[in-house]
Design a protein that fits this description.
11 helices; mainly alpha; globular
C-alpha cells in the first residue's frame, strides 16, 4: 500500500498520542500538533481520526501479507507461524490498539481483509469478486474459523509470557 509521507507522519503522531492519552480524548488538533502539521493538511488526507485508524489497520494487513510473501508460507502451519511472527513483531501496536478499543476496524472487516491478503499473496486466484464468491460459498465455515482465529489472537496477545509463533503454529 502506497502511503504518502504526510499520511505516515499523521499515523505515527496518533500512535504516539495513544501511548499517553485515551483515543476518545485525542483531538485532530492534538494529532496535527504532534505531527507538526496544520489542520488543513490533516483534512487533505483524512476526514476523521477514525480514518487514520483504518489506515493503520490496512497497513497491518499489508504487513502480514508481506510476511507471508517473504516467508513463502503456503501450508497452514507455515501461515500460522508467519501470522504469529508478524503479530509478535508488532505486539506493542496490537496491544495499544486493543487497549484503546481500536481493533474494531479489523474485527468488523476481517473477511474482506483476509480476502485481500489471500489475493495479494496468491493463495486465491482472480479478483476480489471471485474471492468473495468463494467465501460466500463457504460463509459459515469461513466465519466460524475467522472468529475462532481472531479470538485465539486476542487471548494469545495477553499471555505473559506469550507462546512463541512456533508453539502457536503447532
Amino acid at each position: 500500500m502506497e502511503t504518502s509521507e504526510t499520511k505516515q507522519w499523521i499515523v505515527e503522531a496518533l500512535i504516539r498520542l495513544l501511548k499517553r492519552k485515551n483515543y476518545f480524548d485525542i483531538t485532530i488538533a492534538n494529532i496535527t500538533d504532534e505531527a507538526l502539521l496544520g489542520r488543513r493538511t490533516f483534512y487533505r488526507h483524512f476526514k476523521s481520526k477514525d480514518e487514520v485508524v483504518e489506515l493503520i489497520s490496512l497497513q497491518l494487513v499489508d504487513g502480514f501479507a508481506g510476511q507471508l510473501l517473504a516467508e513463502e508460507a503456503k501450508t497452514f502451519d507455515e501461515i500460522m507461524n508467519s501470522y504469529f511472527t508478524f503479530w509478535e513483531e508488532n505486539i506493542e501496536l496490537f496491544l495499544l490498539l486493543k487497549k484503546a478499543r481500536l481493533l474494531y476496524y479489523i474485527e468488523e472487516n476481517i473477511e474482506a481483509l483476509i480476502v485481500k491478503v489471500a489475493l495479494k499473496v496468491g493463495h486465491v486466484a482472480g479478483d476480489t469478486a471471485d474471492a468473495m464468491e468463494i467465501v460466500e460459498g463457504h460463509k459459515y465455515e469461513f466465519a466460524y474459523k475467522l472468529a475462532g482465529f481472531w479470538k485465539l489472537t486476542l487471548v494469545w496477545s495477553e499471555e505473559v509470557p506469550r507462546k512463541s509463533p512456533e508453539e502457536m503454529s503447532r
